[in-house]
Write a structure and sequence with these properties.
By secondary structure, this protein is α/β, with parallel strands linked by helices. It has helices spanning 10-22, 33-42, 59-68, 84-93, 105-123, 152-163, 171-179, 188-202; strands at residues 2-6, 26-30, 47-51, 75-80, 97-101, 126-129, 132-135, 140-143, 146-148, 169-170, 211-214, 218-221. The relative contact order is 0.09.
Length: 226
Amino acid sequence: MRILFVDDEPELREQISNTLTGQKYTVDTSRDGAEALERIFTEPYDLIILDVMLPRQDGFEVLRELRAEKITTPVLLLTARGEVENRIKGLDLGADDYLAKPFSIAELLARIRALLRRSAESSTSVLEINDVRIDTASRQASRGDLHLNLTPKEFSLLEFLLYNRNRAISRFSLAEHVWGDAFDPFTMSNNIDVHIKNLRRKIGDDQGTLIRTVRGVGYMITDSEQ
């Protein structure tokens, strides 16, 4: 997944770039609106994180131009806390979500995951890896010709892993996606492990060659045979 982060604060650009790179995203940064537009018009991005207050061309102008050019890349708009008018204006211009500054890194990552997930859902309802296939519209799963009778939580785990194929996903991220705010942080790790064990059994992956354990992190679904 490739993300463009646009902000005129050098320290914030560096911090966010390092954080997202550590999450296995590919990250480009821009310091002003004009530079951002040059990148957007020449490079494909899966998500654009765009500050409103930018030199040369502000975030609204950038957003207006890219939507006028029929670029549908999801945009997460960064606004100052309390600026309700700017949030409304940004959404009216085509922003997909907004986040008020200052923000927590955890919330930023959650918004990114949600927007990327929403974008993937709108582009296709079928996800597959090797001979495992799920249809996110009908909520059906199969492996080869065998229908998989998954619980809703097992399906959500498999779905989220497939959206993030070949990328290690933490137990916290999995719990946040499947249980939302309802998960208990004290029992989270054990619950995830139990559900992954059941999911592996149902898809015939008892050895963990498809859904791999990433020690100290969580899990990853991979199409690699290594």
